[in-house]
Amino acid sequence: MTETKDLATLSVNAIRFLAIDAVEKAKSGHPGMPMAMAPLAYLLYREVLRHNPLDPAWPNRDRFVLSAGHGSMLLYAVLHLTGYDLPLEELKRFRQWGSKTPGHPEYGHTPGVEVTTGPLGQGIATAVGMALAERKLAAEFNRPGHVVVDHYTYVLASDGDLMEGVSGEASSLAGTWGLSKLIVFWDDNRISIDGSTDLAFTEDVLARYRAYGWHTLRVEDANDLNALRHAIKLAKLDERPSLIAVRSHIGYGSPKQDSHKAHGEPLGPEAVEATRKNLGWPYPPFEVPEEVYRHMDMRKRGKALQEAWERAMEAYAKAFPDLYEELSRRLKGELPSLPEEPPAFDKPIATRAASGKALDAIAPKMPELLGGSADLTPSNNTQAQGMADYSRENPLGRYLHFGVREHAMGAILNGLNLHGGYRAYGGTFLVFSDYMRPAVRLAALMGTPTVFVYTHDSIALGEDGPTHQPVEHLMSLRAMPNLWVIRPADAYETFYAWQVALRRKEGPTALILTRQAVPLLPPEKAKGLLKGGYVLEDAEEPEGVIVATGSEVHLALKAKALLQEKGRRVRVVSLPSLELFAAQPEAYRKEVLPPGLPTVVVEAGASLGWERYAHKVVGLDRFGASAPYPEVYERLGFTPERVAEALLSLLV
Ligand SMILES: Cc1ncc(C[n+]2csc(CCOP(=O)(O)OP(=O)(O)O)c2C)c(N)n1
Ligand SMILES: [Mg+2]
Fold first, then answer.
1. pLDDT one-digit tens code per residue, 88-135
2. How remote is the CA of residue 187 from the centroid of ligand 2, in Å?
3. What phi and psi, each to the nearest 5 degrees, are found at residue 433?
4. Cβ partners under 8 Å of residue 96, min gap 6
5. Is the predicted pLDDT of residue 4 greater than 70, yes or no?
6. Which residue has a Cα nearest atom 25 of ligand 1?
7. pLDDT for 617-636, tens place per residue?
8. Which ligand is nearest to the CA of 192?
9. What is the residue with the minimal CA distance to atom 21 of ligand 1?
10. Contacts of 394 (CB under 8 A, 6+ apart)
11. Three-state DSSP class for 372?
């Protein structure tokens, strides 16, 4: 059977069997999707994608996002075969501790993986951000005769990806934004884990995408390379984003073909043997014929592509030296010099408004800063002065209207930041962080420096009532590894919080901001925010400490004044960021919070977790209520008297 097989078929089968063998060896994984989509992966990585295995970070490479991350072996197989630094040994250690081939693709872990995927829907939504970054960067930097930003963003999505709401949110925006260089392949295999997609996924998906403003195509047979080539050609010609439905057969070639049994478990030795026979693959596990390696080695081609781009950049540097400098800086992710000192404030101001002022000061100095909001721009104060709206017609605009789509906003912000060339932030109410949590989590996992602006940070938002009043959100965000949560107490702390967030490269930051006006702190004290926590007011030989965050810092100051009248010596610590504080040397932390000193924490949020520092917590372990905010705040116990009593009860 094998003699007549051409190199393409041989290579496609090599991808299939690398996936089959790796899953068998790991005794875990998802063989079905790679077996079906191997022809597409072959075509993309060998003919279509402009990529360089020798430099996976080459800025102008085409992006490929495997949204259906469970099919990770598909990606690992083509990365290995085309010459990325992913040796066969790593494929043999699929899903094992310390390997470069984790169960789902992880950004920053495996060369050639563009984004962490696995939670369905996230990959395609993140890819919308990448395609947007390309479009914006091209508009900003390309000049006639000098095209230096020019790449496509390809996505492979499964049924599950297109079932998830976030993909619909993001695809709707991609249509509105006219992201013509976004090309999504839908693995239309009519199977998901529970069985046939007839169970729960019966809409006309292509009609839905056409309604989003997409161009849609069909390829009737996933094995038909020419049909795939033709569809990709048409997709490139169209001005809309394209969705190509590729009719495929999960577990292709195996006895489990077209069954959900091929989705997420090893085929088993018998089925593997049968598949070897069916597909005419005589090789033992993990053996790939030399001619396949030769046929699929993309290193030379990739190097040539990148060198051509580098030559274009050299010409660009001569013709437009300033633009070249700027583009190079931005692609390297180097910050420009940002304002060091906060703007002056003269009266109480909500930290959300102060955040707007900070952005007004920073945005003109930082052209890579992109802002946005999920339809709460006037409330979030996220549109800095001079930030024009982005639109299909005005790709230079730096402000993104996401509509009421928090989840897509989160993923798209991540995509913009992963792409390079931009630093993106977006706002909504803190309570709706729940609507985008999966994207926040992926930013934290990937170490992507997205800034999430969460305003209306407590019950002190008042009349909108308990549906809008966050309670558990602060602590639940703090529970997320690698997310920095900063809840500044005043306008000056807010300015410094932005400095921290924008300087951070290793992960995302959530800025938690008040709706209501709060008094000003001494600016030189507020700079203590840079250490996460600091002594705001002290007493000689303090007997006890009141720790607070955000608006409750002012309550703590009032409680201190009450206690002082009673002759008590109290320290007040502002602790806007637990993560930043935890990162300080132990000596500093002990200086601020001396062990053993009776400590009360006050925060208008769930008390869970504050035991770390507090002997007593004045927190909120119930839902809020709808009423004018001073009354809600007071009735739920946020009074100077209660805080003072809490500390008094600890003092002897
Ligand atoms: C948000 C999310 N929910 C659930 C899962 C678990 N899961 C993994 S794959 C899958 C569905 C599989 O069907 P499909 O997406 O069509 O992939 P195929 O089996 O066809 O490869 C599910 C529910 C997940 N990865 N992400
Ligand atoms: Mg499916």
1. 999 999 999 999 999 999 999 999 999 999 999 999 999 999 999 999
2. 6
3. -60, -25
4. 26
5. no
6. 119
7. 999 999 999 999 999 999 99
8. 1
9. 33
10. 388
11. strand
| 160 in contact with ligand 1, CB cutoff 6 A | yes
Q: How far, in Å, is the centroid of ligand 1 from the Cα of 192?
A: 6
Query: Burial, 556: exposed, middle or buried (Cβ in 10 Å; 0-12, 13-18, 19+)?
Result: buried
**Could you say which ligand is closest to the alpha carbon of residue 69?**
1
Q: Any idea what the Cα angle at residue 126 is, between residues 53 and 478, rounded to 5°?
A: 110
CATH class label, 349-518:
alpha beta
* 516 touches 460 (CB < 8 A): yes
Please, what's the b/e burial string for 626-641 (b: 16 or more CB within 10 A of its CB; e: otherwise)? eeebeebbeebebbbe
DSSP 430: G
Other beta carbons within 10 Å of 29: 25
Structure tokens at 405: 């789509």
Give the CATH fold of the 529-648 domain.
Rossmann fold (3.40.50)
Contact 488, 406 (CB under 8 A): no
**Phi, psi angles (nearest 5°) of residue 482:** 70, 5
CATH architecture, range 7-299? 3-Layer(aba) Sandwich (3.40)
Decide: 192 in ligand 1 pocket, CB within 6 A: yes
- Using a 10 angstrom Cβ sphere, with 0-12 exposed, 13-18 middle and 19 or more buried, the burial of residue 181 is buried
Distance in Å, CA 284 to ligand 2 centroid: 29
- Cβ-based neighbours of 87, under 8 Å, separated by 6 or more: 80
* Structure tokens, 243: 């969705």
Domain boundaries for CATH 3.40.50.920 within the chain: 529-648
> Please, which residues have CB within 8 angstroms of residue 502's CB and are 6 or more apart in sequence?
335, 338, 362, 366, 369, 423, 451
Nearest ligand by distance to the CA of 250: 1
Catalytic residues: 406
Dig out the tokens for 544 from the structure: 């006890």
Check pocket membership of 70 for ligand 1, CB cut-off 6 A: yes
CATH 3.40.50.970: which residues of the chain?
7-299, 349-518
Q: Averaged over 235-245, what is the pLDDT?
A: 98
CA of 50 to the centre of ligand 1 (A): 29
Q: Do β-strands 191-192 and 195-196 pair in parallel, antiparallel, or remain unpaired?
A: antiparallel
- CB-based contact 618:646 (threshold 8 Å): yes
Residues 6 or more apart in contact with residue 18 via CB below 8 angstroms = 73, 76, 77, 80, 81, 91, 286, 288
Segment 446-502, tens digit of pLDDT:
999 999 999 999 999 999 999 999 999 999 999 999 999 999 999 999 999 999 999
Mutate-to-test residue for ligand 1 from 35, 155, 167, 263, highest number of ligand atoms within 8 A of CB: 263
Burial 299-321 (b: 16+ CB within 10 A, else e): eebbbebbeebeebbeebbeebe
Pocket perturbation via mutation, ligand 1, pick of 193, 205, 256, 261 by most ligand atoms within 8 A of CB: 193
Token couple for 228:
């795939």
- Block residue for tokens 């290579």: 11
Ligand 1 within 6 A of CB of 104: no
Alpha-carbon 555 to chain mean position: 35
Residue 60 to residues 52, 394, 542, Cα–Cα distance (Å)? 10, 22, 59
What the block records as the tokens of 90 is 């790593």
CA-wise closest residue to 444 among 476, 479, 481, 418: 481
Ligand 1 center from residue 506 Cα (angstroms): 29
Which pLDDT does position 8 carry in this prediction?
98
